[in-house]
Amino acid sequence: MKATQTIFSNLSLILFLLFFTLIPNQVLAQNPVLTKVNGGTSWVKPNVSLKGSGATTVTGSYPNYTVSSTSGGSYSAGTGISITSGNRVNNTAPDKTVILRGAGSTTISGTYPDFTVNSTSGGITYSAGSDISIATSNVITNTAPDKKITIKGTGGTTVTENYPEFTISSSSGGGLTAGTGISISSKRINNNKPDKVVKITGTGGATIGGNYPNFTIGTSQTTSLGSRPANATVNFFTSSTTNSLTPSLSGEQVIFINTAHANCKINLPPANDNKYRIFTFIKATQQNSLVFDKNIITAPGSSKTTFSGNDVKLTIVSSGCDWYVMED
Question: Are 259 and 289 in contact (CB under 8 A)?
C-alpha cells in the first residue's frame, strides 16, 4: 500500500512538470503575440495598435481588428474614367482615333500605337547655289572660297586697303567741280550769284515779250507774193448739205457764196503747187460759215479754217508753202 502511494505521488509530480513545461510552448506556437520572458514560464501580452488614414478605418481590439476602405478610396474619376463600387477603375473611352500630321520637313509614318516621326536635318531642305555644295551628311561647303574682290572708286571716291577690309572715302563735293557763280562745301552746292538780270533781245524777225522767268518769243513772217494775175473770173456758188466748192485754177477767182442753207466747204488746192495763186471769197449771207479744208494763216502764229459773219470778204494767196490771208 505504501509503495502504491509512492508511485502515485511520483506520477503526479511528473504530470505537473510536463504541464508547466510543454503547455506554454504549445500556446506560444499557436499564439505568436505572447512573449516568453527570460525563458521562464511567465508570459506577457504585447501592446498592438492599428490606425487607419484617408478613406481607410480600423475598428475592433486586439487580437480582432476590422480594416475598411470606402469605395474608390480617395480617388475621383476624370474624363473617360469611371470607378465602380468594387473599387474598379475603368477607361470609358478606349480606342480613340489618334491622328499625327507632319508639317514642313517633318513626316509621320506608321499606325497607332506605333508612329515614326522623321525630320530632315535642320528642319529645312536646302539646295546648293553657285559655288556651294551640300553633302549627304548635311555639311554645307563653299566650293569657291577666297575669290578675288576688286573695288574701284571713281570721281571723288577712293578705295584703299585689301580684302576683307576696305576703306571707301569720298572727297567733299563728291567729285564735282564748282563753275562760275557756284561753290561746293561739305557736299552742299551753292549759287553764289543768284538773281542775275536776264536779258533776251530779238533780232531780224524775232520779237521778245514778257519778263523773267516767263518770256514769249515770236517771229514775224514776211512773204514776197510776186505779181498778181491781171484777169479775175467771178463765180457764184450756193452751198447745200450735199455739195462742196472746189475753186477753178483758171486765173484769179472771185467767188460769191450763198450760205443761207448750209456751211460751205471749200476744197483748196495744195499751196506748194500753186505759188502766188489768189482766191477771193465773198460770203453774201449771215447764216452759217465758210469752212476750208486747209489752215489759213491770218497772222504770225495764228491760223484757222472757219470764217463766219455777214459780208465776209476773204482774199487768200499761196506762198508756195501755206495759204495766207491778204485782206478780209
Answer: yes
What distance in Å separates the CA atoms of residue 81 and residue 91, rounded to the nearest whole number?
A: 5
Question: How does residue 234 score in pLDDT terms, banded at 50, 70 and 90?
Answer: confident
- pLDDT tens figures, 142-175: 887 777 777 777 767 888 887 777 788 776 545 6
Note whether residue 287 is domain-resident. Answer: yes
Domain range enclosing 252: 232-327
Look at the pTM and tell me if it is higher than 0.85.
no
Using left for φ > 0, alpha for ψ between -120 and 50, and beta otherwise, residue 214 falls in: beta
Check which CATH number belongs to the domain holding 312 and give it: 2.60.120
Question: How many CA atoms are closer than 13 Å to the CA of 192, on its beta-carbon side?
Answer: 8
**Main-chain phi, psi angles of 114, to 5 degrees:** -110, 110
Cα separation of 277 and 73, whole Å?
A: 130
- Structural domains in the chain (count): 1
Pair 241, 267: CB distance under 8 Å: no
Residues in the chain: 328
